[in-house]
Amino acid sequence: MSIQDNLLKIKSQLPENVTLVAVSKTKPVEDLMEAYHAGQRIFGENKIQEMTEKWQQMPKDIEWHMIGHVQSNKVKYMVPYVKLIHGVDSLKLLKEINRQAVRWRKSINCLLQIHIAEEETKFGLDEKELEELLNSDEFKEMKNINVIGLMGMATFTDNEEQIKKEFQYLKTIFDKVSKLKTDNCQLNTLSMGMSGDYQLAIECGSTMVRIGSSIFGGR
């Protein structure tokens, strides 16, 4: 199957309210252009340098999403063009995104990453840290970021029950904190689910899935 066929097949299965982020990290520009010509406009990268190079070479109607772990000192390189930063896992990182956004006189959309997996290696806030962050005065004073939702990654396991439990837990947190609305925080996006588990994630309430290998093939 071609990239175009893979993409169209996946899109035909997604509910209307679910956004597809095509995870294009490590893939060459020609592969991304094949997806682009098949109608895909949202691409997710996990390295800022690689994403910037692709942004420079590709059409400007593409939405670039930063899906990897973000180091504060690299934020400045993507602020000019990034549409959504997925893995925001600390107040410190939010401050730096806000600071750079002020410099560029623009507003940046962010998702807060919640730690739902049983693996220690995954990043993210726990429920208490999330509530403290959203209620802090420091956060409310940030005028150049918009927190538009939450994201989380399930444990890497074949145990569907465990994955489902983790997705349901994130949905519960999302429902609880999405009642909180401030100038820089209206939670309407719940990003969970990747190539291996996106159908389960959608069943559990995901509105944004990140799919790479099922579109572009394995690495």
In short:
By secondary structure, the protein is of the alpha/beta class.
Description:
With 219 residues, the protein is α/β, with parallel strands linked by helices. 40% of the residues lie in helices and 19% in strands. The chain has helices spanning 3-13, 29-37, 48-57, 75-78, 91-103, 127-135, 137-140, 160-177, 198-203, 213-216, and strands at 19-23, 42-45, 63-66, 84-88, 108-113, 145-151, 185-191, 208-211. An eight-stranded parallel beta sheet has the order 7-6-5-4-3-2-1-8. Strand 4, helix 5 (91-103) and strand 5 form a beta-alpha-beta unit. The longest helix has 18 residues, at 160-177. 38% of the residues are buried.
Largest sheet, spatial ordering of strands: 7-6-5-4-3-2-1-8
Helicity range of the residues? 40-55%
Distance between the termini: 16 Å
The share of residues in extended strands comes to 15-25%
Q: Whole-number radius of gyration? A: 17 Å
- Extended strand count: 8
Envelope shape: globular
For the biggest sheet, the summary is: 8 strands, parallel
Helix count, DSSP H or I runs of 4 or more residues: 10
N to C succession of SSEs? HEHEHEHEHEHHEHEHEH
SS-derived structural category: alpha/beta
The low-pLDDT segments are: none
- What is the residue-mean pLDDT, rounded to a whole number? 95
Quaternary state reads single chain
Keyword list:
about 220 residues; 8 strands; about 20% strand; globular
